[in-house]
Amino acid sequence: MHFSKHLIFLLLVICCSGLLADESTVTLKTPSGEMQISLNELREMAGSELEIYDPFQRANVPVRGVDLIAFIEHFAADHRQASAVSFIAMDDYKVQISQWDSGNWLLVTHENGHELRLRDHGPIKLIEKNLGNRNPTNLRNFNDWVWMVKTIEVLQ
């Protein structure tokens, strides 16, 4: 089978443009409906800065992001009835957080002073600000951390 260079180029452009579009927004689903939120808007909202020990990188990492509570309060009008918040990654990994309003969750948009990209497990990561007394060498203690978040759903 013979493909022209132009056809192959066109297919690459179509495939890559879809990937770029997926990385430019995050979907928020609430009982009221669904919306696309610009990653640029989230990055501009990123006012929480701290250094955390990242058990997956086995290093202290300076991060910046949006507190989950602030995100939900800003974008989800019906957040007061939320019983949990669900996160779905680009690879369809899914986590549901029932104590979403504990103040311990951060939507990370920047690491080491740079915007997260897909190759950095971004563009958004869900992490905990305080690891508590969990052993950071046991990565199963951190199954509720989510990389490459594409959808956030407020559940009632």
From TrEMBL:
Name of protein: Oxidoreductase molybdopterin-binding domain-containing protein
Alphabetical list of InterPro entries matching this protein: OxRdtase_Mopterin-bd_sf
- Signal peptide range equals 1-21
State the source organism's domain of life.
Bacteria
Alphabetically list the UniProt keywords: Signal
